[in-house]
Write a structure and sequence with these properties.
By secondary structure, this protein is α+β, with helices and mostly antiparallel strands. The chain has 8 helices and 9 strands. It is globular, with a radius of gyration of 19 Å.
């Protein structure tokens, strides 16, 4: 996934599939976030649209890294932030012998991007405007402009980010999420083994006790509930949709069954 910024006429953040995502069967879609009008300080607008309907002219790519997951929207002192995973590492498949994989990724870095404020934008990123996604996707394989972007010296913001303390928690290596295909990371293995594959909704039946980002992801889950069945299925296949994070505990088992 790639994250883009449109500054005018209304500040807009756009998450789109990359060519790699689409090669794995993800639909060509985009999540569009904006905050405008009298409720811009407390309410965000979200759209799930075909990628072809998005005008990419003049957009700024905010991260040279692929976006690994979208954790939700957080409001801090009337400033709304889109929270995304920019770095994660796979730790394995909990059910390698099952037909349905249950991969787990450990979060290593999370970034909070302002939706209704530019105060905490990275000036280095703002100076580098990437061309259309068609070119960017082809350049990804050759690491052309992306390499140059990574080698730039990032300039610190003049303001302390209000979510800095929260973001630092993700460097501890104790938070996890499930990549696509999504499964319920908040449940016990014994529950999933006995649960019929065709029953239940991984987003609607999760156990909130074990989902750390339940509060910030709720608005996106509510948005998902309002989609029709086909759009909901496409969102669930989307490689960067609302992810449920939680801690993963490994319990020793008796080897004598």
């Amino acid at each position: 996934m790639h994250l883009y910024l449109r500054e005018h006429p209304v500040r807009t953040l756009i998450l789109t599939t990359s060519s790699e995502d689409e090669g794995r069967g993800c639909p060509r879609r985009a999540l569009v976030f904006r905050a405008e009008g009298p409720k811009a300080a407390s309410q965000a607008m979200v759209e799930f649209v075909p990628k072809e309907e998005v005008d990419f002219t003049g957009l700024i790519r905010l991260s040279a890294r692929q976006i690994q997951g979208c954790l939700g929207l957080m409001n801090i002192e009337n400033e709304i932030f889109l929270v995304v995973v920019t770095l994660a590492s796979p730790i394995g498949d909990l059910r390698p012998s099952s037909m349905k994989t249950e991969e787990v990724h450990r979060i290593q870095e999370v970034v909070f991007y302002g939706l209704n404020t530019s105060r905490y934008d990275d000036p280095a990123a703002a100076e580098t405007s990437f061309p259309s996604p068609t070119y960017v996707d082809s350049a990804d394989s050759m690491m052309m402009r992306e390499t140059g972007y990574l080698n730039q010296q990032a300039q610190p913001s003049f303001y302390e980010h209000p979510a800095a303390a929260i973001a630092s928690l993700f460097t501890t290596g104790t938070f996890y999420f499930t990549p696509a295909p999504v499964w319920d990371i908040s449940s016990r293995l014994s529950q999933r083994v006995h649960k019929k594959e065709d029953l239940g909704d991984n987003f609607a039946t999760y156990d909130g006790r074990f989902v750390w980002n339940e509060y910030i992801v709720k608005s996106l889950l509510d948005f998902r509930d309002r989609l029709d069945t086909s759009e909901k299925e496409e969102l669930d296949k989307y490689s960067c949709h609302t992810r449920l994070c939680g801690n993963v505990y490994r319990q020793p088992t008796n080897s004598t069954w």
